[in-house]
Structures are given as C-alpha cells and as structure tokens.
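Feature request disguised as a bug report, sorry. It would help if multi-protein outputs had a clear separator. Right now it looks like this:
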Amino acid sequence: MVDPSNSAARPPAMLRLKVRKFVLSEHLVLWLSILYVTLLGPLVPGFFSTENAVNILLALLPLFLAALGQTFVLITGGIDLSVTSVIGLTSVVGAKVMTAQHGWLGNSPWATPLAVLVMLVIGTGIGGLNGLAITRLRLPAFIVTFTGMMFFGGLAIWVTQSRNIGALPDSFNRLGGNAWLACAIAVVIGGFAHLMLARSLFGRWLFATGHNARAADISGVPVPATIIAAYAVSGFCAALASILYTGQTETGSPVLAQRVLLDVIGATIIGGTSLFGGKGKVAWTLCGVLFLKLVDNTLNLLNLSVFAITMVKGGVILFAALLDATRHRFSGARA
C-alpha cells in the first residue's frame, strides 16, 4: 500500500527542489533580461530602435568595466565604495594633462596616450592604497573605501575648484563616444578578466581568500597580496570606466558618474557575485549590468522622474541582495 503521508510530502519536496534549482541557476539573470525585454519592450515607445540600442550599449560599457573591478573585490569578501571618486579624480587629472587650456601637454600628439596612462596609474594606485590599508591596518573594507570615496571625491573638486574641463582632444573623445571602439576595449578587458578568474593561479587565490581567508593563508595563499591586487584591479577598472565616461561626455568632471555607485555594486550583485565572497564570474557581472541598464532605459523612455527610477532600481537591488542571501543558504545546505 502507498503511504499517504509520503505522497502528501512529495509535492512540497519537489517544489522546494525546483525553487532551489531556479534560484541557483547561473543563467537566472539572463533569462530575466530576456523576459523583461519580451514583456515590456513592445510597451515602451522607441525601445527597439537602433538609436536606443546604441544608447544602451554606450551606457552599459563603462558600467560593466567598473562593475568588473568590483567583482574581483567582492570575490575576496570585500567591497569598494571609492569607485565613483576614482572615476571623478582620474577624469579631471586626465583632462588637465591633455587639454591646451588647462593642461600640461597641450596639443602634443602624446597628450591622449599619456593622459590615459596617467589615469590608469592613478586609479590602480588608489586601489592599491585601499588594499594596503585594509590588510596592513586591519581596517574594515567598508570604512577604508568609504573614507577614500570622501577624500578622493573632495580632492577632485578641490583640484578643479568644482569646474568642468572641456575642449578634450577628439582622439580621446572617440575612446568613449565611438560605440565600436568602446565595445572593443570592454571585450578585451572582459576577456582578460575572465581568463584571470577562470584560468590563472591569481583567480584561484581570489576564490580561496573569499571562501575562507584563514584557511587560504594556512594553505599557502598570499592573502594580503591577493587582497591588495584585487583592489588595485578595481581601481584600474574604475579608471578605464572613467576614460569611457569622460570620452562620452567630452568633459573632465569632478562629479563624473557620482550617482552610479549604487549601479556598480547593484549590477554585480544582481549578476550573482556574492556579497559573502568566494563566488563570481565575468559573464554574471555582464548579465547584471545588462539587466540593470534595461530597467534604467525603459524607465527613462517612460519619462519617469529620477526619484521614481531610483526607487525602482533600489527595489531591484534589494531583491538581488535577498536572492544572494537565499543562494548562500541553499549552497550551505547543499554542502
């Protein structure tokens, strides 16, 4: 005979198994993006136009680069709140280097490449300093990077006296304004980051540090150096994002991308990189950025206010954080 208690218990167990499989799926955000476009795209005027597709791409690429650096940091179990200040500071310093009106190189043919180099060095250096303070002073990443956000953001405003710097060289503006060139930069950096995470010893060190820093240290992983390198990568990627943002606006601004910190962290978490560390992929981050930019774009096309858009995006990011916590519990139960 069939035990009725077992048959009654079977459906809830199967349902829980299906829910767990859905929540833990690596392609969850990609499917949500496709579903979002399918359901809302036809209802939003101009969403499927070529011009709008280019706008989404240009908005997506610098955010992807910034979120890529955040992915490295989150994998180690940290967080980098100084990203937007790095973007603003490198934007104005790079503009000062290459403009004739404010700059040190003026109309020199080396102005653009040297400005790009200076921006990348500054971004990487700030990231390295963040990592050094976290590991050597044993301070929480939140406090160190929040302080960095305030200091470097204020420094950018002080350097420019809160003024924008225009008249940037066309060769520089094309780096961010030309969709194909910006896309090529993002693809190269994204591909290299994927190889670092998936195929390199450094990638294994990152995941080991995020899973359990103490166990990784005992196993021979150079945990402090790994954390410093992760924050240096975050600063480097923030500087790359600054290059694209500055090229798109054709202006060096101390408050450039000041409002995208929520997007940088949110897109990374939405994609599936865990706030608890030890988990993340480049493809996940790309899907998270895509989903957040689709939401942003459709809400803008519907002429919603900035406040309404911020509220909706905040709700989406909160849902992603709850989903991450659920995934963490499921993964722990499965382990």
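(second protein starts here, but nothing in the output says so)
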Amino acid sequence: MVRAGRQGSADLLFLKENSIALSDSEMGDLKQLPDDRASFYQAYANQHPDALRVAVAGIGGKYYRFVHEIAIGDIILYPSLIDRHLHCAVVKGRYSFRRTAAWKEFPHRRGVEWLTSFPLDALSVEARRELGAARTLFLFKRHVHEAVRISRLEKLLG
C-alpha cells in the first residue's frame, strides 16, 4: 500500500504517469546505498539530523522497502484522496531516481500498470481503517482478501 503524498499531491503522477513515487530529493539516488537497512537509516539521519530515532527507522525503512522489497510483479494498492477509490496496480519497473524539474517533488519512482479501481466505500469499515494507517508505504494484510475479492484481481491476473 502506498500513499501519494500530503493531500494526494502525487495523485496525477501516480495515475497518469503510471508510477508510484516517494519524495525527498536530499536522500539522493538510493541505488548508491548498500543493500542493508542500516545504510538507509544512516542516509536519512544524515539528511535530517534533528529527526528522532523512531522517525529515522520508520522513514529510512520506507526507502529501503521501496527499493529492495517491492518487486516487479507485486500488487500495489493506492487509496486516492482525490477520487476516493482504491486503485490496484502491478509493479512493472525497477527503482529509478532523477534530479530533474519534472521529478523534483517525487524523485524516487517505480513504474506500475493500473489494473482496476473501486470506491473505497465498498470496503468494510475495518479495511478502511487499516488503509488509513498514517504510514506512506506499508503491507496491507489484515483485509487484503476484501480488496482482492472486490477488485477481482485474481481474474485480472489470471
């Protein structure tokens, strides 16, 4: 599950440019970091020296997961604040970073193919609460069966 920034600021980038993305260009190209969480924690702490230890672990871990744990072929869920739909995609691209004007706000990206979407209100209250977690990137697991059933992802994926 991934969010599109504050107030859904990356909504168009996600849905029109077939991407999911994270912000913070100061982190630089995350492919240059060693493939271990501690390196990501340290990189975040270096850029944000006033961050609390829990923030360093949580946010540094988010970048690590975005680069190393999300795999091509994984399913991504995006609950849009703009259209109030749960959008479902399959990851198609590897991590990429660009420090350009077009990518300025969200320089960390992965390509996706959007498969389907449905109104968030089709989910149970409990599932919507799980989606409402205050994290940007996390594993949606307790109510994933609901999203799969409603979206018909199994049929779309064969």
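Even a blank line would do. Unrelated, but nice: The helical segments are 11-16, 37-47, 53-69, 125-131, 144-151, 153-157.
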